[in-house]
Structures are given as structure tokens and as C-alpha cells.
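Contributing new records

If you add data, match the layout below exactly. Sequence lines come first and carry their own label; structure lines follow with theirs. Keep one chain per record. Anything else will be rejected by the validation script.
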Amino acid sequence: MTETGEIECRNALSKCGIPGIDWSLNPYLGCAHGCVYCYASLMMRFHIEPEAWGTRAYAKTNIPRVLGRELTGGRHRRNGTVLLSSVTDPYQPLEAKHGLTRACLQELSARDMEVSILTKSHHIMRDIDILSAMRRVSVGFTITSPLDEDASILEPGATPTSRRIAALASLADAGIDTWVFIAPAFPWVVEEPETLKALADTLRDAGVSRVSVDPMNFYPGPLVRLLRTLDAERPEYARRLRRAMGNREAYAASLSRRGRIGFPVAHGP
């Protein structure tokens, strides 16, 4: 169960250090997807205890109004590319109730802002009417495993991989630029040419334009949670992860060969 609530924010847009992105926009604090490897638990540790990450999510109820003010604020007006979102999922379950992401998209669309969206939820399809009308928008789905059964263990609250790919295909059919973020790049995925090729073929058939790959950051906190889960559910994956932890040069070399997936590849959104 996820503890939910409502809060208010002072600012909507935050400066973002991701290449090609100027601002991040996070309509929610916390995330109900409960991904066992999530790094955001470290970045948000002053707001939500790392051990509680995935069990608490709060709606920033005034964020559309604050965003509108920031986008029209005279000499303080915000310009540039906006990412939805950097430390939460803009289409987690709370969005069905609050519609904050949709309201923020309406604000951004009205001012012709360039927008990049990153999610793990097929619920983005609800907003295809707004997205298809926006002149400068791209939609990315994070995919860590091609197998639904693996994703259900690692990302228990998120949409199954197969349904994410189906959503990508529908978005592409609507003329929306789509891409995929392999993040983190798990050893048991990126070290297997056949696995990567099968995933690439599926994404290509779905109309995906490009793939970004994010190497694993071996942060202790997320690693403890991830290894605990893998030891219980996927011991072979746990062994491969420990091998990568012990030989990071070999793991990095496997990433350097990722061009074999046959897509333009970059780091980050």
C-alpha cells in the first residue's frame, strides 16, 4: 500500500543538469511504482526516507498554477526544454485522481514550450489528444527488461513492459516522437546480444526513433534493495550483478558495445 496525500509547492520548474534539458517538472513528490533500484530515493532523502521510497506519494496540488506564473513571469519568464519528470513518474496512479500532469501539459502547450516526457505508465495514453497537438514534444518510456515477469519483480507498481511497448506504438502512430530509456542498464540485459537484438527489433517495430542508455550507478542504498530482491527472486541475475560490481571495467566494455542494438544511442533524456 502507498501512503498518499496533498501538498503545495513554491516552485514548479527546477534547473536540470541533464544534457539538452533546461528544466525538470515533478508534479508529484515520491512515486508509487516502487522500483527496487530507484536512485531517486537518494536525491529525495530529505523529503522521504530512503527505506520508505515507493510507499509514499504526494500530489503538488497547486503546481499547474505555479507553473503558469513561472511561464509568464516577465523578466523571470522561463524558457527552454522541460522534462516531465526527473525524480517521480508523471503518470503514476495519483495522476488519475489529480490530473496534475495533464494540467501542466496544457500550460506548457499554450506557451509552445519544448517538452520531453519520461514514464513507465501506459496511462499517458489518456493525454494523447494534448500530445498530438503539441508542436515540440517527445515521449520516452523507461525499459529495464524485455520480460514482463522480470519487470513485475523490479518495478512492481509500473506498467508491464509489453504494455509500455504497445503504448509507444500507439503514440508513434499518432505522429508523436517516441524514444526508450534503458535505465539502469542491467548486466543480464546489456551483456546478452540476443536479448538486446530482440528488444531492438521490437522497439523498431513500435516506431521508436532512438534509445538512450544509462549505466548502473553502484550506489550502496539502491544496490542493497536490488540485491535483496534478486537473491530472493532471480539468483542468477544477482550473481551477474555482483560480477559487474567486482569487474566494472568489463561491465563498461559491455556498454561500449551497445551500438549493436541498431539505434542512435545517447546518454540520458
